[in-house]
């Protein structure tokens, strides 16, 4: 007796192959391109705890009078490159985000908040901008912060 070869019809194989192809493309894009594992059909969603909500971007502006101020994330949270940088932290995304922030006029006035600076047309002009991207790390009941990327540039 010979064993029968089980031949699946092409209509059964096609969905399986397409799901495998989508999963492979998702895997490649999340590791080597601009796609976060948390996006793209959910194939990689549960493979990483490093979601964008676990990353924090801190922007510091330096002024000619020696003061350094923090920028509230509310001022740049609607910038598209901000979301991309949090979702997929790469040096190229950090430089793109820095370029967009440099287009804004960062100035502070005496009497403004001691902690935060706003984009406004009055006051002392900024001389440098520093951006740090940090990530929360959970490990066996402890939480730590790890700096992922950092970039500092003088304002022209």
From TrEMBL:
Organism's domain of life? Bacteria
The record lists the lineage as: Bacteria, Pseudomonadati, Lentisphaerota, Lentisphaeria, Lentisphaerales
Q: Under what name is this protein listed?
A: Uncharacterized protein
Name the species this protein comes from.
Lentisphaera profundi
């Amino acid at each position: 007796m010979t064993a029968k070869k089980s031949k699946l019809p092409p209509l059964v194989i096609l969905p399986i192959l397409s799901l495998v192809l989508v999963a492979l493309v998702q895997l490649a894009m999340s590791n080597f391109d601009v796609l976060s594992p948390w996006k793209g059909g959910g194939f990689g969603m549960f493979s990483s705890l490093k979601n964008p909500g676990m990353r924090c971007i801190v922007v510091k502006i330096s002024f000619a009078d020696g003061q350094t101020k923090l920028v509230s994330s509310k001022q740049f949270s609607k910038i598209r490159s901000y979301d991309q940088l949090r979702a997929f932290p790469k040096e190229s995304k950090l430089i793109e985000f820095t370029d967009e922030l440099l287009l804004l006029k960062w100035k502070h006035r005496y009497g403004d908040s001691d902690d935060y600076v706003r984009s406004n047309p009055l006051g002392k002009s900024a001389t440098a901008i520093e951006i740090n991207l940090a990530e929360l790390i959970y490990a066996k009941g402890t939480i730590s912060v790890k700096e992922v990327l950092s970039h500092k540039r003088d304002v022209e």
